[in-house]
Recover the amino acids of this structure.
């Protein structure tokens, strides 16, 4: 990160984008990238709140997956879900809303950290 180059990043810059769409690694690379960015902007808040956001995001994602793969007789795929589909969708919707709320908090915190850095940088140049 340009603001604090001493902060080591767990993933290379290409994974900032690919980590969200490459199967399997999309289960943890985005979490690491967001944690790195957050740690670079605010070292005191390196991990606080990130795990909850990521857990809710995964629940939301898997609820969508179950919704679309619950039954496809033409493919011979039958996923056994013990809960009725509206319950799965409701849990997914609540998880999505919770993830969104935490995401907004994370983005606001990172933005505030970047603004503080710019203000400190401007104060040193004067």
């Amino acid at each position: 990160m340009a603001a604090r180059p001493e902060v080591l990043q767990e993933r290379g810059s290409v994974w900032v984008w690919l980590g969200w769409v490459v199967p399997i690694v999309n289960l943890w690379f985005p979490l690491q990238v967001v944690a790195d960015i957050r740690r670079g902007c605010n070292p005191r808040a390196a991990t606080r709140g990130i795990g909850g956001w990521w857990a809710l995001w995964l629940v939301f994602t898997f609820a969508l997956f179950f919704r679309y793969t619950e039954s496809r007789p033409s493919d011979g795929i039958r996923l056994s879900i013990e809960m009725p589909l509206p319950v799965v969708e409701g849990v997914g919707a609540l998880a999505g809303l919770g993830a969104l709320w935490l995401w907004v908090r994370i983005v606001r915190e990172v933005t505030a950290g970047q603004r503080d850095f710019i203000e400190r940088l401007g104060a040193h140049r004067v």
